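Question thread 4412

I'm putting together a teaching handout and wanted feedback from people who do this every day. The idea is simple: show students a protein as raw sequence, then show them the structure tokens that encode its fold, then repeat with a second protein so they can compare. Below is the first pair exactly as I plan to print it.
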Amino acid sequence: MMKMVLQRGVFSFCISAVCGLITNLLIEIIVRFISGAKDFVPLSPEYMSLFPSETIAMEVNILLYGVIGFAFSVAAIIYEKERIGFLFQNLLYFLITGMVWVPIVIFVWRLNRYPQALIGTLSGFVVTYVIMTMVGYRIVRKNISEINMCLADRL
């Protein structure tokens, strides 16, 4: 079980890192094309000041996307714990994943200084939570159907 969870986590790390890379690439290309700003970088200046170069900042940024994806994937195991209710599963999932992405968004990326970027990022997390809630709900529904089938077979 743990091996499967870690495999999922590593796969999600890779997917999230690539998606983060593509998203930042598209943002940079589009903004540079539309505004003509040759020096635009889709990272906050405060974040970039933490690193000796823009390329290292971008590479670490890509890894941070991977860390967030890893956390979201590994934390999804909570939906497979049948002893706790669905609402409690959602609350735990939100808290566990929030312990990963909130510090990255606020303290590392420092998006709290850029309301538009913060709102866009938070919107992305809300969409992720909606998706995970739907996935979790489907798992619960499937489990209930299986239980009902077992009960029907006994009658």
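The second pair follows. I'd like the answer to focus on this one:
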Amino acid sequence: MEDMIILIVLMVCALGSIAGLLLTISTNRNVREMAKTLTFQYNLIVKMQNLLKNKMSVNDTTDKAEIIYQDLLQDLIPIMAAIDIMPRTTSEHPLWRALGGIMDEYAKNPFVLEKLRRAIKLDTNISHNVSHYLNRANMFLQHMSSTDTDGILSTTFTDGLLGQSLTFFAQAQALASTDK
């Protein structure tokens, strides 16, 4: 009878040990799964944080861009009046209508470059407006290239009307300064 009690106690201990081992293995598996889930969630939170930072940067750039657009437009208005050019009649932003009008007129009539050269040479206000426009537009393009992560937006501005107008105004300014 004592042997039977010892055998039962040993069996209970063995079953308890096996149950404890199975419980440990199960808990270990659950902890590994939880660690994987937490790592995935952490990586997802980091991606969301980066996305929000980029979005805030783009929103900040957009807000600043409107101020810069208005500043550039204020420089273009007297220049357009001096060389007698009207803006495009489209539903674009006024800056792009003004630049489009200048570049369209230059494409039709290259003499516009000569008119602008004369205006820069003869009128200090026009010269100042052209210089200010060139400086602000260049600063804007540099800011765009430094904040634009994939380069699509800054390339669009550089290759578009803004870049073309920079070339046009810089050319006219260079011609005016060399012809003294």
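Top answer:
Good format. For the second protein you could add a caption like this: Residues 65 and 140 are 8 Å apart (CA to CA). The chain is about 90% helix and 0% strand.
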